[in-house]
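hey
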Protein backbone atom coordinates (compact mmCIF):
# COMPACT_ATOMS: atom_id res chain seq x y z
CA UNK A 1 0.00 0.00 0.00
CA UNK A 2 1.34 3.50 -0.78
CA UNK A 3 1.33 6.60 1.44
CA UNK A 4 -1.94 8.00 0.05
CA UNK A 5 -3.78 4.71 0.35
CA UNK A 6 -2.58 4.45 3.95
CA UNK A 7 -3.79 7.96 4.69
CA UNK A 8 -7.19 7.26 3.13
CA UNK A 9 -7.54 4.16 5.31
CA UNK A 10 -6.63 6.04 8.47
CA UNK A 11 -8.47 9.36 7.89
CA UNK A 12 -10.96 8.86 5.03
CA UNK A 13 -14.64 8.35 5.82
CA UNK A 14 -17.04 6.45 3.57
CA UNK A 15 -20.38 8.22 3.22
CA UNK A 16 -23.67 7.00 1.81
CA UNK A 17 -23.93 7.32 -1.96
CA UNK A 18 -20.37 6.15 -2.63
CA UNK A 19 -18.78 9.35 -1.43
CA UNK A 20 -15.33 9.24 0.14
CA UNK A 21 -14.83 12.10 2.56
CA UNK A 22 -11.23 13.22 2.79
CA UNK A 23 -11.76 16.74 4.02
CA UNK A 24 -9.38 16.42 6.97
CA UNK A 25 -6.33 16.20 4.69
CA UNK A 26 -7.28 16.87 1.07
CA UNK A 27 -10.57 18.63 0.31
CA UNK A 28 -10.94 21.20 3.08
CA UNK A 29 -8.05 21.09 5.53
CA UNK A 30 -4.97 20.32 3.42
CA UNK A 31 -1.90 18.36 4.50
CA UNK A 32 0.84 20.12 2.56
CA UNK A 33 3.48 17.53 3.45
CA UNK A 34 1.22 14.91 1.90
CA UNK A 35 0.64 17.10 -1.17
CA UNK A 36 4.40 17.48 -1.53
CA UNK A 37 4.82 13.71 -1.42
CA UNK A 38 2.10 13.41 -4.06
CA UNK A 39 3.94 15.95 -6.20
CA UNK A 40 7.15 13.93 -5.93
CA UNK A 41 5.30 10.78 -6.92
CA UNK A 42 3.73 12.47 -9.97
CA UNK A 43 7.20 13.66 -10.97
CA UNK A 44 8.50 10.09 -10.65
CA UNK A 45 5.63 8.69 -12.75
CA UNK A 46 5.97 11.38 -15.43
CA UNK A 47 9.78 11.55 -15.29
CA UNK A 48 10.31 11.07 -19.03
CA UNK A 49 7.39 13.23 -20.11
CA UNK A 50 7.76 16.82 -21.31
CA UNK A 51 5.68 19.19 -19.16
CA UNK A 52 5.58 22.97 -19.69
CA UNK A 53 2.50 23.74 -17.57
CA UNK A 54 0.17 22.09 -15.12
CA UNK A 55 -3.57 22.57 -15.65
CA UNK A 56 -6.15 21.93 -12.95
CA UNK A 57 -9.66 23.09 -12.07
CA UNK A 58 -10.95 25.07 -9.13
CA UNK A 59 -11.22 24.50 -6.27
CA UNK A 60 -9.83 21.28 -4.84
CA UNK A 61 -7.31 20.58 -7.57
CA UNK A 62 -5.39 23.81 -6.99
CA UNK A 63 -3.46 22.91 -3.85
CA UNK A 64 -2.31 19.57 -5.22
CA UNK A 65 -1.34 21.16 -8.54
CA UNK A 66 0.71 23.85 -6.80
CA UNK A 67 2.81 21.39 -4.81
CA UNK A 68 3.26 19.22 -7.91
CA UNK A 69 4.44 22.31 -9.78
CA UNK A 70 7.34 22.67 -7.34
CA UNK A 71 8.62 19.30 -8.56
CA UNK A 72 8.10 20.04 -12.27
CA UNK A 73 9.14 23.70 -11.93
CA UNK A 74 6.37 24.92 -14.20
CA UNK A 75 3.43 27.33 -13.76
CA UNK A 76 -0.03 26.22 -12.70
CA UNK A 77 -3.17 27.30 -14.52
CA UNK A 78 -6.49 26.59 -12.89
CA UNK A 79 -9.60 26.48 -15.04
CA UNK A 80 -12.52 28.47 -13.69
CA UNK A 81 -16.03 27.11 -13.40
CA UNK A 82 -19.00 29.25 -14.22
CA UNK A 83 -22.67 28.79 -15.01
CA UNK A 84 -22.71 31.80 -17.28
CA UNK A 85 -19.90 33.14 -19.40
CA UNK A 86 -18.86 36.73 -19.07
CA UNK A 87 -16.53 36.94 -21.99
CA UNK A 88 -13.71 39.20 -20.98
CA UNK A 89 -11.08 38.76 -23.63
CA UNK A 90 -10.52 35.50 -25.43
CA UNK A 91 -11.38 32.37 -23.52
CA UNK A 92 -11.41 28.67 -24.20
CA UNK A 93 -14.73 27.33 -22.93
CA UNK A 94 -15.83 23.70 -22.56
CA UNK A 95 -19.26 22.72 -21.32
CA UNK A 96 -19.23 19.91 -18.76
CA UNK A 97 -22.00 18.10 -16.99
CA UNK A 98 -21.82 17.24 -13.30
CA UNK A 99 -23.50 13.98 -12.41
CA UNK A 100 -23.27 14.77 -8.71
CA UNK A 101 -24.75 18.22 -8.95
CA UNK A 102 -26.99 17.49 -11.93
CA UNK A 103 -26.11 20.66 -13.75
CA UNK A 104 -24.01 21.98 -16.60
CA UNK A 105 -21.01 24.16 -16.01
CA UNK A 106 -18.60 25.99 -18.21
CA UNK A 107 -14.91 25.31 -17.71
CA UNK A 108 -12.94 28.36 -18.76
CA UNK A 109 -9.28 29.20 -19.42
CA UNK A 110 -7.95 32.44 -20.90
CA UNK A 111 -6.43 31.78 -24.32
CA UNK A 112 -3.29 33.76 -23.50
CA UNK A 113 -2.14 31.13 -21.00
CA UNK A 114 -2.13 28.17 -23.41
CA UNK A 115 -0.40 27.84 -26.74
CA UNK A 116 0.37 25.21 -29.32
CA UNK A 117 3.91 24.70 -27.96
CA UNK A 118 2.65 23.63 -24.55
CA UNK A 119 2.86 20.14 -23.06
CA UNK A 120 0.21 20.03 -20.38
CA UNK A 121 0.04 17.83 -17.32
CA UNK A 122 -3.52 17.82 -16.01
CA UNK A 123 -3.88 17.36 -12.24
CA UNK A 124 -7.03 16.90 -10.16
CA UNK A 125 -8.05 15.58 -6.75
CA UNK A 126 -10.81 13.14 -7.71
CA UNK A 127 -11.72 11.21 -10.83
CA UNK A 128 -15.25 9.84 -10.76
CA UNK A 129 -17.21 10.16 -13.98
CA UNK A 130 -14.52 12.21 -15.61
CA UNK A 131 -16.67 14.96 -17.02
CA UNK A 132 -14.57 17.78 -15.63
CA UNK A 133 -11.44 16.04 -16.88
CA UNK A 134 -12.85 15.71 -20.38
CA UNK A 135 -13.56 19.43 -20.31
CA UNK A 136 -9.93 20.14 -19.42
CA UNK A 137 -8.70 17.84 -22.19
CA UNK A 138 -10.96 19.65 -24.69
CA UNK A 139 -9.51 22.99 -23.64
CA UNK A 140 -5.92 21.78 -24.13
CA UNK A 141 -6.85 20.49 -27.57
CA UNK A 142 -8.62 23.75 -28.49
CA UNK A 143 -5.29 25.48 -27.84
CA UNK A 144 -3.49 23.02 -30.11
CA UNK A 145 -1.37 21.97 -27.13
CA UNK A 146 -0.48 18.41 -26.14
CA UNK A 147 -1.82 16.53 -23.14
CA UNK A 148 1.35 15.04 -21.63
CA UNK A 149 -0.54 13.08 -19.04
CA UNK A 150 -3.09 13.17 -16.28
CA UNK A 151 -2.33 12.87 -12.57
CA UNK A 152 -5.14 12.18 -10.11
CA UNK A 153 -5.01 11.80 -6.35
CA UNK A 154 -8.03 9.54 -5.86
CA UNK A 155 -9.72 7.63 -8.67
CA UNK A 156 -13.02 5.92 -7.94
CA UNK A 157 -12.35 2.77 -9.91
CA UNK A 158 -15.95 1.65 -9.83
CA UNK A 159 -17.10 4.78 -11.72
CA UNK A 160 -16.49 5.05 -15.47
CA UNK A 161 -14.12 8.04 -15.74
CA UNK A 162 -10.83 6.17 -15.49
CA UNK A 163 -11.66 3.65 -18.16
CA UNK A 164 -13.00 6.31 -20.52
CA UNK A 165 -9.82 8.38 -20.20
CA UNK A 166 -7.47 5.36 -20.56
CA UNK A 167 -9.42 4.18 -23.60
CA UNK A 168 -8.76 7.56 -25.19
CA UNK A 169 -5.05 6.68 -24.95
CA UNK A 170 -3.93 9.14 -22.28
CA UNK A 171 -1.37 8.24 -19.63
CA UNK A 172 -3.52 8.46 -16.52
CA UNK A 173 -1.75 8.02 -13.19
CA UNK A 174 -3.95 7.81 -10.11
CA UNK A 175 -2.12 7.63 -6.80
CA UNK A 176 -4.97 5.69 -5.20
CA UNK A 177 -7.64 3.76 -7.05
CA UNK A 178 -10.58 2.86 -4.84
CA UNK A 179 -11.99 -0.44 -6.02
CA UNK A 180 -14.80 -0.62 -3.50
CA UNK A 181 -16.04 1.09 -0.38
CA UNK A 182 -18.81 0.32 2.03
CA UNK A 183 -20.53 3.01 4.09
CA UNK A 184 -21.88 0.50 6.61
CA UNK A 185 -18.61 -1.26 7.48
CA UNK A 186 -16.25 1.55 6.44
CA UNK A 187 -14.17 -0.98 4.51
CA UNK A 188 -12.20 0.47 1.57
CA UNK A 189 -10.28 -1.64 -0.96
CA UNK A 190 -7.76 -0.40 -3.52
CA UNK A 191 -6.76 -1.66 -6.96
CA UNK A 192 -3.27 -3.18 -7.03
CA UNK A 193 -0.85 -1.01 -9.02
CA UNK A 194 2.60 -1.84 -10.34
P1 LIG B 1 -16.74 14.23 -12.67
O1 LIG B 1 -17.79 13.85 -13.64
O2 LIG B 1 -15.97 15.42 -13.08
O3 LIG B 1 -15.84 13.07 -12.28
O4 LIG B 1 -17.40 14.73 -11.40
P2 LIG B 1 -18.65 14.26 -10.56
O5 LIG B 1 -19.84 15.00 -11.09
O6 LIG B 1 -18.68 12.80 -10.48
O7 LIG B 1 -18.19 14.88 -9.19
C1 LIG B 1 -18.52 16.20 -8.82
C2 LIG B 1 -17.60 16.75 -7.75
O8 LIG B 1 -17.50 15.82 -6.65
C3 LIG B 1 -16.19 16.97 -8.18
O9 LIG B 1 -15.70 18.06 -7.47
C4 LIG B 1 -15.47 15.70 -7.75
O10 LIG B 1 -14.10 15.92 -7.55
C5 LIG B 1 -16.15 15.41 -6.47
N1 LIG B 1 -16.22 14.02 -6.07
C6 LIG B 1 -16.70 12.97 -6.76
N2 LIG B 1 -16.70 11.86 -6.01
C7 LIG B 1 -16.17 12.22 -4.82
C8 LIG B 1 -15.91 11.51 -3.61
O11 LIG B 1 -16.16 10.30 -3.46
N3 LIG B 1 -15.37 12.21 -2.59
C9 LIG B 1 -15.08 13.55 -2.69
N4 LIG B 1 -14.55 14.14 -1.63
N5 LIG B 1 -15.34 14.25 -3.81
C10 LIG B 1 -15.87 13.58 -4.86
P3 LIG B 1 -16.15 19.53 -7.87
O12 LIG B 1 -17.40 19.89 -7.15
O13 LIG B 1 -16.19 19.63 -9.35
O14 LIG B 1 -14.98 20.39 -7.46
P4 LIG B 1 -14.32 21.01 -6.19
O15 LIG B 1 -14.70 22.43 -6.17
O16 LIG B 1 -14.74 20.22 -5.00
O17 LIG B 1 -12.91 20.81 -6.51
NA1 LIG C 1 -11.89 18.52 -8.22
NA1 LIG D 1 -14.05 18.01 -5.15
Amino acid sequence: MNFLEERILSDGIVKEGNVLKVDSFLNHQMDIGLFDQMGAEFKRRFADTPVTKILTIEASGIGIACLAARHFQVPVIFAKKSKSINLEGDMYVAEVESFTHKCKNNVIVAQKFLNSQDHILIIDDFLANGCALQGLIQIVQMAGAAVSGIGIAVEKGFQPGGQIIRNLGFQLESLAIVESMDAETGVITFREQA
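The pocket of sodium ion (ligand 3) is lined by residues 27, 60, 125-126 (CB under 6 Å). The chain has a mean pLDDT of 95.
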